[in-house]
Amino acid sequence: MTDYNRRSFLSAMGFGTAATLGDHRALFTPSRSSLSSRSSDGSDPWIELDREALNHNLSVTGRQVGGRPVMAVIKGNGYGHGLMEMGVLLQEAGTHQAAVAKVGAALDLRSSGFDWLILNFGPFSNSDIPDLVRSRISQTVFTDQVRDLAAGAVRSGIRVPVQINIDTGLGRVGVPWRKALDFLQEVARLEGVWLEGVFTALTEDPEFDQIQIDRFDSVCRQARESGIDTGIRHAASSAALMDADGPFLDMVRPGIAIYGHYPNDQSRRTRPIDLHPVLSLKSRVVYVKELAVGESLSYHQAWTADRPTRIATLPVGYSDGYPATAAGKGKVLIRGRQFPVIALVTANHVLLDVGNDSDVQIGDEAVLIGRQGDQTIDAAALSDTAGISVYKLLIGLNAALPRFII
Length: 406
Description:
The structure is a single chain. Helices cover 30% and strands 22% of the residues. The protein is α/β, with parallel strands linked by helices. It is elongated and about 80 Å long.
């Protein structure tokens, strides 16, 4: 599944070989018509998503938290993996709960037929209320705006679920924990909404996290004592999952971990759970040329050959999300070998020094993130090379890139 129809690619590029799509397209077309069904035989870069890797990550995550329900976080276009594509894979895997950070993403999932519990972490405007109500999105609330949402639900004759974000110290959004009991009591009295759950977000500082959990537990205990059912309680994101004694409560909400990556350097070094990367970023060689000593490449003669060599061009660049800061440091896999990224990463091109001892040809598959043979370009390692976090690398991948489920 790693080297698609090179003959078709050569024909599409105008090199005179008859094009044949073959049967592989069906293997890469997800089960929903809204997903990309394009073949990867063309010149554009593409992303592959490994179904087995995702299922593995969900399995080890479930074991880590003692079988508690998992709410898959698919914000940021599924951490760059694709919102709808991840929706298909997660639904196939039996996941029934997902969280996003934008109203539009929640509505897109619902309108595409996903019948899960969908939680919108993010804000909403009053103009969003009819759609939120009609689509029965679980909306995060922490301000007086919950009254408008409740009123909109009453007008529609529907009760909608809400979840309360309690700020225990992260400080971004959420009702301050000292005021949370009053807010819980108000929400419990409102017609049109019902309290599905309460949650908090941790700072990922181990000592302070415990203070946050103590604050959260105190609020929930007081709410129960006053007769309020707080519903589902959750606090653990991927970082908290790395600790077998983490604050797993009633449910966990991993993000980066289900995609096969560790949330921080410490967990990556110790690897407390075994994760498999889901995403690969691939392209094809579109040009190979010889360079003599003293000849240069790219803007401002960014790179000059100090020996005769061959240069391969890939039609992928920072507009696709490949980091510009990988120039001079990154590597790309072709034919099972690693070749250095040289000169500049431009908007639409990456240049590689493939030397004189390789047989790299036009049409060869190039792996910028992922595995080829027994070699791997790991997303976390590439992010280190580029000087950015793995979160920024993955979420920064262009949403327009074709994504194929394998």
